[in-house]
Amino acid sequence: MNAEGLEETKSKILETVPNAEVLFITADVTNEKAVKGYVNETVEKFGRIDAFFNNAGIEGKQNLTEKYGSDDIQARICMTSLQILA
To answer: What is the pTM of this model?
Structure first.
């Protein structure tokens, strides 16, 4: 994600719903401190959390599953699992 894209999305939301409160936070969902940080920031701004949209991924080579090394597989499983739990 890039700041320009986030601002464009925010503008579109506010065009549709002018009184909307919008908060975009980018964080590494594999980093527990970062997750706690965005949870705390959200609660501070809105008082509660109704839902999250966690969109995480790992950049890198594209391959057939059998061609990934065990480190690659483990990293993807960890990131995906933590994203769900976050």
So the answer is: 0.59
Angle at 11 between CA 6 and CA 13, to 5 degrees: 95
For 49-58, the CB contacts below 8 A with 24+ separation are 52/86, 54/29, 54/83, 54/84, 54/86, 55/1, 56/29, 56/80, 56/82, 56/83
What pLDDT digit, counting tens, does each position of 49-69 carry?
Answer: 988 776 666 666 677 777 778
Q: Where are the alpha helices (H) located in 1-86, listed in sequence order?
A: 3-16, 32-46, 70-85
Q: How far apart are CA 43 and CA 41, in angstroms?
A: 6
